[in-house]
Write the structure tokens for this entry.
Amino acid sequence: MRVAGVIAEYNPFHNGHLLHLTETRRRTGCDYLVVVMAGCFTQRGEPALQDKWARTRAALMGGADLVLELPALFAVRTAQWFARGGVELLGALGLVDDLSFGCETGDMHQLAALAALLREEPPAFRILLRRGLAAGMSHPRARGAAAAELLGLPEQAVSAPNTVLALEYLSANMALNRPMRPVAIERQVGYGDMRLGKVASAGAIRAAWARGEAVEQALPGPLEGPFCRPGGLDQALLFALRGMSPERLAEMPEVAEGLERRILAMAQQAGSREELIGLVKCKRYTWARISRTLTQAMLGMDRKLCETYQRPPYARVLGFREEARDLMRAINRVGRVSLTVQPKDLRQNSCFALERRTTDLWGLGTNAPLYRQSGRDLTQELIRL
């Protein structure tokens, strides 16, 4: 039995993702393909367009055999923790042989050299990193610039979004007792390419959808709602921040150097999430970091909770194909974590309590009465194909 693993958001699942899963099967010769997917919010702190069950169905129809949830405690964090959560979860299954990811480059030698440098952080690297931070660079950019300079590469070769994530996957994978074989599949469309076509970036698809344009050409199937409306959670965010103390906001995992006071001051005058991020953003604080912090604040994702769980404490099944039952039985025999198909079994787990808050919050951004009710994590049935 050969098993390949993929870590994803699928926001939404599009033709590029379909090509990636198809190429993963071809390159690895796997019998089963397991996807670890972020739930209702993305790594950049934004609510996903569709809920996790609609995206699970699309992934299964697109070639996945088993879809597991990456807990929000890891999904709405830095690239390092997003990658660590996904890699640790795949590794804990005990059967995953290959780790496949999309990237701006398919050069595994270059990626491996970069990942080793970022993992080891030799003295020369730390000197360049400190120099970049002193110049006002954000930490991710300073890190990428230091690595690029040491290896004689253009900075964009290191700082492209999917390359950054790929390097974190490789670094986390190196730390496993049983590392998976990395498989880098070159992206056909750049992360920031906003052109809509048969193969388009998720950002281009979401932007076109928000403008009311047809996006079906870029998708393998219909885009099923309900959807979390752009700006649908702005009032909840501003209300939460305006009643929050600086001390409480300072407990969020990415808040430092007085960022909490800057956010709370700007929240008093901003009228929307986008406006608030624009007022807070500066050279040192990136859009993504601020966005994540805002979502973490709404969810109560503080450092104490983050420190409690250094890896996902469970493997929750969102959906599977009937043909994957043998795989699931095998995971339950040899894995370090058992598959959870009954969410009620996780009621006492504080990581899952955060997940429930995440799903409930996402639902408030829709216009669908059923989805605005709380507790869907305990009542929604698994997706089975």
Q: What stands out?
A: The CA atoms of residues 133 and 339 lie 42 Å apart. Residues 15-28 form the longest helix (14 residues). The chain has a mean pLDDT of 94. The beta strands are 3-8, 32-38, 66-70, 96-103, 181-186, 315-320, 339-340, 383-384.
